[in-house]
Specification:
With 561 residues, the protein is mainly β. Helix content is 5%, strand content 42%. It folds into three domains: 153 residues, Sandwich (Immunoglobulin-like); 143 residues, Sandwich (Jelly Rolls), CATH 2.60.120; 225 residues.
Length: 561
């Protein structure tokens, strides 16, 4: 089979395609690349990999997540933004693209593509790399995923760092690197592509094992190298018999680095590693002062800068199916007292206890807790999903003395403040507690759905939400507000800032969502950034507010249709 035929076989038929027969060289590809989806994070484990021009490549795509994903590798040169643009073109086709499993209608743009992979399913792709040395983007074309699920295949002519790389595999239960001299290896051999990788363990269970890699590094000229060693769990780099980098012990992914001057000639390299349980990773690279980057392993260390370590990705999800998950920390778009709620079905909200109101809605993944993993964290964490909406920030209720009275979104005070000045003149604004409001806490039902309670003057308000799917699979949320106690005339609830009149189904457009209100007479009036949708409140009473995203993910169907 010639190379052109190999590519065509991989591409034929998207949604209903029959799995192509592997090419004749499938048992001995020039390069084996494994790209995995990471569970709960909507990410690939690799954002780039390198192959030689014209290389026969076996690309294994492993979906370890609980959602469907795919991988599409483009023929055209570009960067990750080009991959995102390509995916957006597919999303715009709506149901036609959905029927193809979110594959493009024109396969001439694609070098290789997996089918839409169900959770815990993998697929092997075979293709021949372009002859031109350039960057070729790959992307997940499932709607909403491409913003963070993308990467680059680098086509480069490069010699392997090692020609004689060998490995030794050991079994055991350790909490730190063992004395390998006293152990007998379970298996050993030559690493054909000269790249350090945990794939040498084969199909054995990836826990309680250790590895030693040994090879000879050829240095062409005197140079300064900054070595980066990343691992989960422990590892150690030994150069010319000297232990140079120590990353020992049981720990999550961690990268250490050190600058070393190496002279022209041959240097022995020995890399030790052990894995106790849980996640596993091993990566080694070096930056040369004169010669650029050398990648010794298939995976890259998590960071090439110790001072700027990437935050861990800790995707929050419910413990039990059908339950909600809560996140109480600093959420971008809310006050410091924001309470995030991730509901089943991929709909989420943030309720702001400072102003007793809904602050944010979004769909897709819930929250990444990595930023706040230790201590009080490092700043606000944005929602992890997409199509974020902020219907009406600020206080929800106000007594209007007349129809033209402006809405007080927050209580703002002014004080005079100038540092180290006995008689300050400069005024600054600050948010003050509103005496009309008192947050009364929340309680959880059997599904861990929260019901928030607060007091507004003489009224007590409860605020509860739950998923409410719309027609054709559109995500939605039903919010129920109940009012009890003494009300006051001209008490109004501000529902949202909208961008027009309601459609025939009663839904008002509001950015990525549409909103319908039941249980009260609505009115529109001019507001900053749109029209304010208001409802007069009486007690006892109930409002039912339907929030619905305006399309199926990647489609064009209007809410309420």
């Amino acid at each position: 089979m010639n190379r052109l035929c190999v590519i065509v076989v991989v591409l034929l038929g998207w949604g209903d395609r029959v799995k192509a027969e592997p090419p004749e060289w499938s048992a001995a590809p020039d390069a084996l690349v494994i790209v995995k989806t990471t569970e709960g994070t909507m990410r690939y484990n690799l954002t780039e990999f390198t192959v030689a021009p014209g290389a026969r490549v076996k690309l294994r795509v492993e979906n370890e997540d609980g959602l469907q994903h795919n991988l599409v590798l483009l023929r055209s040169e570009g960067n990750p933004a080009a991959g995102l643009a390509f995916a957006q073109e597919i999303w715009a086709e709506g149901e036609a693209a959905l029927a193809r499993g979110w594959m493009p209608g024109d396969s001439s743009k694609v070098l290789a593509a997996s089918r839409l992979l169900d959770p815990k399913v993998s697929e092997d792709l075979y293709f021949v790399a372009p002859e031109k040395a350039a960057d070729y983007p790959f992307v997940c074309t499932v709607p909403g995923h491409a913003t963070i699920m993308n990467g680059i295949m680098k086509v480069r002519q490069a010699k392997p760092a090692f020609k004689d790389l060998r490995y030794q595999l050991y079994e055991g239960d350790w909490s730190s690197l063992p004395d390998f001299g006293s152990l007998t290896p379970l298996a050993s051999g030559l690493v054909p592509d000269g790249m350090i990788s945990l794939d040498v363990i084969g199909k054995r269970k990836p826990d309680r094992f250790a590895l030693v890699f040994e090879g000879t590094l050829e240095v062409e000229t005197d140079d300064e190298y900054e070595f980066f060693l990343g691992s989960d769990d422990g590892s150690r780099l030994i150069l010319d018999g000297e232990g140079e980098l120590e990353n020992n012990g049981i720990h999550p992914p961690k990268t250490v680095s050190k600058k070393l001057k190496l002279t022209k000639g041959r240097h022995s390299l020995r890399l030790q590693y052990f894995e106790a349980a849980g996640g596993e990773a091993l990566a080694l690279a070096a930056k040369r002062k004169k010669g650029g980057l050398i990648q010794f392993s298939r995976e890259a260390p998590s960071s090439f800068n110790k001072k700027d370590q990437p935050l861990p990705v800790i995707a929050l999800r419910p413990v039990k199916e059908g339950e909600a998950v809560l996140y109480r920390n600093f959420i971008l778009g809310s006050s410091p007292r924001g309470i995030g709620v991730g509901y089943p079905g991929g709909v989420n909200l943030c309720w702001d206890a400072d102003v007793c109101n809904l602050a944010l809605l979004w769909r897709g993944a819930f929250m990444d807790a990595g930023r706040h993993w230790s201590g009080r964290g490092v700043g606000d964490q944005p929602p992890m999903g997409f199509d974020v909406a902020a219907p009406a920030k600020g206080y929800p209720l106000q007594i209007l003395s007349n129809p033209e009275e402006g809405w007080r979104a927050f209580s703002i005070g002014k004080i005079k403040s100038e540092k180290d000045v006995p008689d300050p003149q400069r005024e600054i604004d600050l948010k003050l507690p509103n005496p009309d409001y008192q947050f009364l806490g929340y309680r959880l039902d059997q599904h861990r759905f929260p019901e928030f309670r607060f007091r507004f003057r003489g009224m007590v308000v409860t605020d509860r939400s739950e998923p409410e799917p719309g027609p054709g699979g559109v995500e939605g949320l039903l919010r129920v507000l109940t009012f009890s106690g003494a009300d006051e005339p001209r008490t109004m609830q501000r529902i949202a800032l909208v961008q027009g009149e309601a459609d025939e189904s009663g839904f008002y457009p509001a950015g990525p969502i549409a909103i319908r209100v039941e249980g009260g007479q609505t009115q529109l009036r001019p507001g900053e950034g749109g029209q304010e949708l208001l409802v007069a409140i009486t007690s006892p009473g109930e409002l039912r507010i339907h929030y619905r995203w305006t399309s199926v993910i990647g489609g064009r169907g209007a809410a309420g249709k």
